[in-house]
Amino acid sequence: MTTTSRETTAPQPLAGARKTHLDALATTLLLACCLFWGFQQALSKATLAEVAPLYQALWRFALGSGALLLWCRWRGIPLAAPGTAPRGSWRYGLLAGALFGGEFICLFLGLQYTSAARVTMFLYCSPFWVAVVLPLLVPSERLRRVQWLGLGGALVGVALALADRSGTAAMPGAWRGDLLGLLAGLLWALTTVVLRATPLGQVRAETQLLYQMGVACLLLAPGSLLMGERWHLDFSAFAWTSLWVQGLIGGFVSYLIWVWLLGRYPATRMSSFVFLTPVFTLVVGSLWLGEPVTATLVGALVLVALGIWLVNRR
């Protein structure tokens, strides 16, 4: 996924490689990531019956970090060679990691209180935070009026899809899950801003991701213990499969692709794609749990697709 050779020892500046729109490669990768993330939210929710929330998140990022280190060793990628990173980038790396860890603490705790689809909707309000904050620091990321219209249309589509789920808002403590999902979305947006608007953006994608997952592990481990979660290994085959899928595909492959894309394509255009993930979560829930796909859901999918098209017009 990187464009530099194994022999390269210095990180390559990303500014010269940046594009002003999403091409076919970016669109394909984003769709694949969003489809998997939509599935992963439902998978994480199902796994909570056996694996406590923060303990489950810790497994995801510990496995992801291990896979990333093996990948870098195999590819000969230097993660911390002296003099290869912009001065002070490590501070922004720790900040991005803290924001990333906080996002997933909120997300996994929120899954305890409400449905996966509902908490995912609030999490994926992140593009609005990105669209508001990032143009203040990176003028090239500013959206035009028609693109704001596209973002609004996509959000309306997600809201319609979630409104079609009866009973979720009446779940005990659902408001806590909604609030935690909204906070997770804000933390995700701030992570994106740090990756795009600070010297950390000139560091290799692998190093950026290792900062995020490594610091997240450092936050999740004591957080899980402080909450009194039970650490154990007597999982069922389903739980083990879930943890490995979340760690290797979710924590390693999909996030590495996302960070790689952030270094080459406009973040606000990319972020608009994430509106597909809540809809995918609803579809996966319907197929997995046998819930019907309604006309409202189909209309929501059309609105989301139209919104993404408007945002990504050249």
Describe this structure in words.
The protein has 314 residues and is an all-alpha fold. It is globular. The protein is built from twelve helices and no strands. One of its GO terms (cellular component) is membrane. It is a multi-pass membrane protein.
What's this entry about, in short?
With 314 residues, the chain is mainly α. The chain has twelve helices and no strands. Helix 5 runs parallel beside helix 7, helix 6 (145-163) packs parallel to helix 11 and helix 6 (145-163) runs antiparallel to helix 12 (295-311).
List the helices and strands and how they pair.
Elements (H helix, E strand, L loop, with lengths): L23 H24 L5 H23 L13 H22 L5 H8 L2 H12 L7 H19 L10 H24 L7 H22 L10 H26 L4 H7 L2 H14 L5 H17 L3
Protein name: Drug/metabolite transporter (DMT)-like permease
Family: Belongs to the EamA transporter family.
Membrane topology: Multi-pass membrane protein
